[in-house]
Amino acid sequence: MTPAPLAARLRVPSGPLFFPVTAYGPDGSVDLDTYRAHVRRGVEAGAAAVFACCGTGEFHALTPEEFETCVRAAVAETDGRVPVIAGAGYGTALAVRYGRLARAAGADGLLAMPPYLVIAGQEGLLRHYREVASATDLPVIVYQRDNAVFTPETVVELARTEGIIGLKDGLGDLDLMQRIVSAVRSEVPGDFLYFNGLPTAEQTQLAYRALGITLYSSAVFCFAPEIARAFYDALGSGDDTTAHRLLDGFYRPFVELRAQGRGYAVALVKAGVRLRGLDVGEVRPPLHEPSEDHVKQLAQVIERGYALLDDNK
What we know:
By secondary structure, the protein is α/β, with parallel strands linked by helices. It is built from twelve helices and eight strands. The protein has helices at about 5-10, 30-45, 65-80, 90-105, 120-135, 150-160, 175-185, 205-210, 225-235, 240-260, 265-275, 290-310, and strands at about 15-20, 50, 85-90, 110, 140-145, 165-170, 195, 215-220. An eight-stranded parallel β-barrel has the order 1-2-3-4-5-6-7-8, surrounded by five helices.
C-alpha cells in the first residue's frame, strides 16, 4: 500500500516528532551503527516522524557526504513505518543540493532552515524557499527563526507555493504567529501545517495549542522518550494536570539548565542520550560539551522526571 502524502501523515501524528542526534565515534567520525540504533529506539518508542540531520542532529557540522549517509541510514531504519524529513540549509545553491541529496537518500520531505549568514528581505527569502521547493518533488517545511522571520503576507505566499506544506516556528512571537495563522486561513484555504519549533517545545506548547498549533518538535524524546510521550498523551487527552506536573517538575528545570550554556539545546540533549546508555559521542565544534556539574544536574533532572511518571501510575 502506498503511504499517504507527508502532510496527511503529519497532520494527526501518532506520537512525538523525533529529532535524533547524530552519533560520532571516538575519532569524531559519524558512527552509523550507533546512529541507526538511536533512530530505531526512537521509532520503537512511538515517534510519529524522524527529522534527520536537522538542528538537534547538527546539520551545520555535517559534510554533504555524511548528511546523505545519515539520511539514508534513517530511511533504512524506519523502513517506511514513519516518514523521514531531512534538513536543508545554507545559501540557495547548497540548500538545493542538500534537498537533492535527501531525495536521493529516500527522504519523505525537507525541513528548510534559515539561509546562512545574510539578513535578507522578504522578497529574497520568498525566492530562496521557492527555489528549494522547486528543486525536488519533496514536500518542504520552512523553519522560521534567527534571520528567517516572515510577515504574514510572506507566509501566505509560501502557502501558495507548490511543494511547501508548512511552517515551523522557532521564534516564539505568539502575536506574529496568530496573525500568520489568521492570514493563511483567510487567504489560502486548506491544511497548511504549523509546528512549534522552539527549543524544548513542550515548555511553550500549551500556549501554541491555544493558537491551534498542535504539532511540535521534541528534543527530550531523544533521551527520555517515556517522559516526552507522557506529556504528548496528556496534551492529546486534555489532561492538563499531568502536563503541568511534568512542566513544573521536569521541563522547567531542564529549560533552566539548558539556559546555562550556549549551544546546550544540542549539547545537553546529546549528554542526556549518553546518560541513558547510548554513547553517541560529543558535539562537534563550534558547539562545546556541558560542564561536569551540568551533566550531574541533568542526571538529577532526568531522574526526577521519571519519578513523576511513577507517581502518576
